[in-house]
Write a structure and sequence with these properties.
Length: 306
């Protein structure tokens, strides 16, 4: 995974002290051009969580996904100790592994209890190591669902800024990354918009700390799917697909065009993965949803961008 170019702004105090003193407070952010200039090369590569796919066994589900034209599978958070099993099954099916959907570990990493925070850090490091071995695109992480911590919004953010640099360093060392997932307010009061996750990634400034967007939550929280993905672009490495009522794309009025314009703008090349229910016969409806998404992708044109 590529490191993003950064601006390093030496504090004015350090500059005043002689210009070469880099020991002062260092502010870092993504190069504005990374966000304000469109990139080419975006691709729609489809993935799904296993629960969406019909089939009696892992092998049967993976075989079906390959036949239907999926590129990758999103694995559940139980990969620690099962790396060999998953790697073999997915390779046999001719698929790749997208993200690993890990979650919040009960909010442990941002708990008011320092011992629980230590446990959480150990657990996320373990799953990152396994995710790296599986060559997945990263580990989906929700700081806390509602009710999982007594800390306030401001306190949670401070804890994350304290612990994420070390976790990011571990992620890089095992060739993985954390994918912060913003959720809607009914599920989590902390971290609701993609740009909010982007600001955390910017502040932590580690290639091991990145983010994702979920079309279901974004419909509730984002004034613009396009703007959300553009803001998150430098750190965006996974997308969840679901309609307004959290069934398959195309099963209600939810449009994906504005969001797909955003993915094209940032040159998105990772996976878009089903995380949703299904109305009707899965054997019929899933291929229909995949075709619908390819049509939406074609409709998502950007002037001057391939
Ligand atoms: Mg999601």
């Amino acid at each position: 995974m590529g490191m993003h170019r950064r601006h390093f702004l030496v504090s004015t105090a350090a500059l005043a002290a002689g210009g070469m003193a880099f020991s002062g407070a260092k502010m870092v952010w993504a190069v504005p051009g990374e966000i304000s200039t469109p990139r080419s090369g975006a691709q729609l590569k489809l993935s799904s969580q296993l629960g969406v796919i019909p089939g009696k066994s892992l092998e049967e589900k993976l075989e079906k996904m390959k036949k239907w034209g999926f590129d990758a599978v999103e694995l559940p958070g139980d990969i620690v100790g099962k790396v060999e099993m998953y790697a073999k099954a997915v390779a046999n099916a001719g698929l790749k592994i997208s993200a690993v959907c890990w979650g919040s570990a009960g909010g442990a990493l941002v708990s008011e209890d320092e011992n629980r925070r230590k446990d959480g850090i150990r657990m996320i490091k373990e799953v990152l190591s396994a995710a790296g071995e599986l060559q997945s695109t990263g580990v989906i992480y929700v700081p806390a669902f509602n009710g999982q911590t007594k800390l306030t919004n401001q306190e949670i953010r401070k804890v994350l800024l304290d612990i994420l640099p070390e976790i990011g360093e571990h992620a890089v060392s095992v060739k993985s990354r954390v994918l912060l997932e913003p959720l809607n307010r009914k599920e989590a009061f902390f971290l609701r918009q993609v740009a909010d996750a982007a600001a955390i990634c910017r502040d932590v400034n580690s290639p091991g700390i990145c983010l994702m967007g979920d079309f279901y939550h974004m419909y509730i929280e984002e004034p613009s799917d396009f703007a959300a993905f553009v803001a998150g672009g430098p750190w965006l490495h996974h997308v969840h697909l679901a309609s307004r009522i959290r069934v398959l794309p195309g099963q209600d009025e939810r449009s994906f065009v504005d969001g797909f314009r955003g993915l094209k703008w940032v040159g998105y090349q990772d996976y878009c993965s089903f995380e949703c229910g299904v109305q009707g016969d899965r054997e019929v409806e899933i291929p229909k949803a995949m075709a619908f998404l390819h049509e939406e992708w074609e409709k998502a044109t950007l002037p001057g961008v391939a």
